[in-house]
Amino acid sequence: MSWLNHAVLFIALRYIKGSRKQRFASLVALLATLGIAIGVGALIVVSSIMQGLQERLKANILTDCAHVVVQAQERDLPYLLSLPYVNALAPYVEGEAMLQYGEDITMVTLQATDSNNLYISPKYAAAFGLSSRNVDAFTLKTQEGERSLMRKAPALQAVVKMPTVDRMGYQYGSIFPFTAGDYELALNYATILQYHIDVTSGDKVRLISTQNARYTPFGLTPVQRNFKVAAIINSIDKSAAPTVIGNYEDVRRFLRLTPESMYYRLYLTDPFVIEQVVSFLEGRYNYSDWRARYGDFFKAVSLEKITMSLMLCLIVLVAAFNILSSLTMVVNSRVSEIAILKTLGLSNHELLAIFLLVGMSASIIGALLGLALGIPFALNAQDILSFFGVSIVQGELPIELDVSNILIIVGLCQVVSLACTFYPAYYASKADPVTNLVHS
């Protein structure tokens, strides 16, 4: 029956080509093809730009923000390092304080990471130039109850000095070589500009904290300390309490934290997989994550991305309805031919295949045209906008071409088109040849 398969393909190609009597149906099919091409191309461009903007915001904001902070003991480190998407952890401290400079005062988030004690997950040991075998040795011996193993056996290399960027390109945020006892701070550049602080001359600011405040004969006395502004945090921080970073030991001493108050900062391979990580912490540890501070902001960005995609999906949907209209006209104009084909031996399945090919041809060609237009346009979006004098963001426009997103766009386009194509094709395959021949 191979000749029938060739016949199905031959007949479908003839119907796709159309005839002089079906010029209007061919025009509708052409418009459907162009509509799908425009829709797919626009979706690729917009999704690539939105994805790039989201990745830039994630890098600029969540690099310095602690992804997860867990209150735990040293014996819990092997379990925390074994969690999915956790590549490292380090001792961490954070607290709220008021920053005073002259007559100006503002609320800040004071944080510090012990950059000399970074614990590595065995899964990501290669990123630090270590063998997973050595890191596994650290994990096993810690489970046996040895404490501060790295200080006893430095050859294991399970704890290393925190790099700014590891071998796999992972960013560990702003790392400053502050010396304990110098009481130095790094401030966000927006805070420095707002209060006209001179970093080069070593201006000092006063930090005031009511955390662990003590009672004196004068009442409850907050903790106060002068800190020297020695560095700038080069990241975006639009929160009500911008981040300031200090030395780990200095911040612990300033906040009067006891040795039992041990917190660890978990570094995730992707902050957006936070749900999969905290599911292992709930009910077992006290923890906080980046969503408490920036969750609403990134939800708004994600909602904007979804809204733009849904609006552009309407273009594909309208084009799919045009496929439905054109295929319906083709079927109605060829009822007698369908009856003749059935009398010649074509089955219902073969007729269904013919008209599915006819209907899906517009979708397939349109998707290919959309890919051919959308990908180059997305890659050269910055040059095209610059040519017309349009500027969307400051600096280079971020473009993130995600193959999975492109496949989803093309796949959904084909599914919608198939849904609109199926009914006319099914109607044609179930047509009664006797009735159609009599009426023709």
Distance between the termini: 29 Å
Largest sheet: 6 strands, mixed, barrel
Return Rg in Å.
32 Å
Report the count of strand segments.
11
In the sheet with the most strands, the strands line up as 2-3-9-6-8-7
Shape: elongated
Number of domains: 2
Portion in helices: 40-55%
% residues in beta strands: 15-25%
User: Which consecutive residue ranges, at least 5 long each, have pLDDT under 50?
Assistant: 140-157
Average predicted confidence as pLDDT: 81
Number of helices: 14
Order of helices and strands: HHEHEEEHHEEHEEEHEHEHHHHHH
Structural class: alpha+beta
Task: List key phrases describing it.
440 residues, alpha+beta, 2 domains, six-stranded mixed β-barrel, 50% helix, elongated
Would you summarize the structure shown here?
This protein has 440 residues and is of the alpha+beta class.
